[in-house]
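Recap slide: Histidine ammonia-lyase, sequence and predicted structure.
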Amino acid sequence: MPSTVTLTTAPLTAGEVVDIARRDAAVEIGAEALRAMAESRAIIDALAEDTVPHYGVSTGFGALATKQIPHEQRAQLQRSLIRSHAASSGRPVDREVVRALMVNRLATMTTGRTGVRPLVAQGYAALLNAGITPVIGEYGSLGCSGDLAPLSHCALALMGEGEVFDRSGARTSAGEALREAGIAPVELREKEGLALINGTDGMLGMLLMAAEDLARLFTTADVAAAMTVEALLGTDAVFAEDLHALRPQPGQIESAANIRALLAGSPLIAATKDGEHRFTRVQDAYSLRCAPQVHGAGRATLAHARQVADYELASAIDNPVVTPDGRVESNGNFHGAPVGYVLDFLAIAAADCASISERRTDRMLDKNRSHGLNPFLADDPGVDSGHMIAQYTQAGIVSEMKRLAVPASVDSIPSSAMQEDHVSMGWAAGLKLRRAVDGLQRVLAVELLTAARALDMRDGGVAASSSSPGVTAVRTLIREHVEGPGTDRFLAPEIEAVNTLVAAGSLLDAASAAVGQPLR
């Protein structure tokens, strides 16, 4: 059974958001949060009766903020806001993105700084717990004034309108899904529509999930590099602790420590030190020798991104916002620049990690650089092509990742009749980062599959492994899912099998168990 996360006025952790988004943890709202929402709602109710206009309470929105709305039309104002802003287009974004967006918005509601009724927050919790996921097209958010269109689709579902996916994944009307789940549609009151759509929740959710994935993938890159060093009869001398202490970049030091642990006790490395290459192989190519520097830079980028994410998780983003002393103030905290920048930054780090992995793979396939391996690791070169086209697949992915590394956050297109004249494009940065993360995972899978084949060709297979204990454990797990070297066969399922192992973290678990310590 999934765990339960209780929302209070305190920030959620990154892990809690991801547990709800990805692993269907249940959501409940604590009494403290319910009180805080009721108190701030009382402030909004008082302003609703004021003859002085208040933005989002008794006025229109955006460039229409100068128009005061009569009391009898304010429920229609909220409905119209949500219906008109639910204007996304394109293929539906992934379920986990929508759930992360919803829980981040719910977490802001429970701070008591938005002025929504507890009923509204309870409605979002009910949707999440029922597995009801609003259908949101990939286009529509500019990442400023919040992820407006995506968040509007979620508010529309709360109203019982629009389309959703039910728990089984079937696409249906929101009204039908709510009836099946026993959830009553909510009629929004003053300010509530605006409070449901003014936040960086979607881009933040994508950042949190990418951070979890990249932490696993940067460590997996260390495993792949260690295997390739063995396969290419490289040296472990460059990973020495004292060398990396000369440049105390924390991520680099962690990566080098991982590779040292993975290569410890390797008969192949020991044989290389004493064999024919000891005089001619003074140093390895950059893609081997500089792996900790590149993988470590990715870790440093990730550490910075996580700090930004933690700040955003601790935020109560709305416009206007109800301050702790009872004021209702307009502000610009919905601007997605901080999140958009790090989403773009991580896409750069992912692309470079994939690029160095592809270069290592290519060295194993080139008979002029592989130190005795068959061309393309083919069983019968000429008759067989081995992993020739697997490297093409890597190259195609890396090329796309370089395009995805072009920042989205440097762009801005004015909107809302120039009222919203500078926007972040953070939503777009998040979507392209998700594609980049998937690409990095697949590139690493090809390197791991290729290195396992190269090592099998060195020593005849894992039964007679001349690898270190850590590398042997990874090779053994791969061989449980993919056959060893032989004549050419359908390669795509083998790549996918290793990709699945990388995604599940199974290879990291096997390597960590074998070296006797968690790889970081």
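The chain is about 55% helix and 5% strand.
The chain has two domains: 4-199, 206-515.
(End of recap.)
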